[in-house]
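Quiz preparation item.
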């Protein structure tokens, strides 16, 4: 099978608007039928991405600079982790929270331009995926490939599960730094960028662990505050829509009452119009009879 042809098709499919994926995949499979049976079957087997994965793929296609910033930040964070630089970790965690907020907002804007609005739940999945790429070199490569099919999450400092996360793992460029795992285990752990001349003391390790915990606490507090603001905004929107719905229902009831009244008036007017028409016909006939009588009487007198 032509792996390069499959990769080219995949890159095109995963850059499409979400609703177009299935039809485009079917069309691509049919178009590749002349290349044998393997390529069409492989194209048909390409999984449709989740909405969150698709939104991240849209960043890779339309705003790669946003992902590049996060990737560079991830390198610096892994370097600070390797050197046990507590102060740097705290500062980088704050910087990451800011960049993640910008990146998630950008993903939402790009998705909307591509015809789909993402919910707060999907936005949270996008945020977790982008955060995971800052902790793991393999996740960074997966996200930047634009071939994600499911959201990512980090369950620790350097652990991101990548099995089944990318449509074509073989099409994802290997990270520039860090040790590779076998092909069937694509997860890549964060590695030290520079070796330490001496082993850290227990106090240094404890200080670094404390810094990490504090940074994680700060980041979680920031995310919680963001979620509270989102909740307040959503509650306000629901309240406004509820009030508007009640107003519209009141207007609808009033309009229906006016319609019923107008229909009754129409019925009455129609009946009166028919009665008036009959009276007019009767009066017309009476006038014609009277005229004929006058003519007859005039002829008799002559």
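Solution:
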């Amino acid at each position: 099978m032509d792996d390069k042809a499959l990769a080219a098709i995949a890159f095109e499919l995963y850059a499409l608007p979400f609703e177009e994926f299935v039809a485009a995949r079917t069309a691509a499979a049919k178009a590749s039928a002349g290349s044998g049976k393997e390529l069409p079957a492989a194209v048909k087997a390409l999984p449709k991405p989740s909405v969150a994965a698709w939104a991240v793929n849209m960043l890779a296609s339309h705003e790669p600079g946003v992902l590049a910033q996060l990737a560079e930040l991830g390198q610096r964070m892994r370097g600070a982790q390797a050197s046990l630089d507590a102060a740097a970790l705290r500062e980088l965690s704050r910087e990451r929270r800011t960049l993640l907020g910008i990146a998630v907002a950008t993903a939402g804007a790009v998705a909307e331009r591509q015809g789909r609005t993402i919910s707060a739940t999907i936005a949270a999945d996008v945020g977790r995926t982008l955060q995971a790429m800052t902790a793991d070199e393999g996740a960074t490569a997966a996200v930047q490939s634009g071939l994600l099919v499911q959201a990512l999450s980090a369950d620790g400092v350097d652990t991101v599960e990548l099995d089944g996360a990318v449509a074509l793992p073989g099409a994802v460029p290997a990270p520039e730094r860090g040790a590779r795992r076998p092909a069937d285990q694509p997860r890549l752990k964060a590695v030290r960028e520079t070796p330490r001349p001496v082993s850290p003391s227990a106090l240094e390790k404890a200080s670094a662990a404390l810094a990490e915990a504090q940074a994680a606490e700060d980041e979680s507090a920031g995310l919680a505050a963001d979620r509270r603001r989102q909740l307040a905004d959503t509650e306000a929107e629901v309240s406004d829509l509820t009030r508007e719905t009640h107003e519209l229902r009141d207007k609808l009831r009033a309009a229906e009452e006016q319609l019923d009244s107008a229909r009754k008036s129409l019925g009455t007017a129609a009946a009166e119009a028919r009665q008036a028409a009959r009276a007019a016909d009767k009066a017309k006939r009476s006038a014609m009879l009277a005229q004929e009588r006058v003519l007859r009487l005039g002829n008799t007198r002559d």
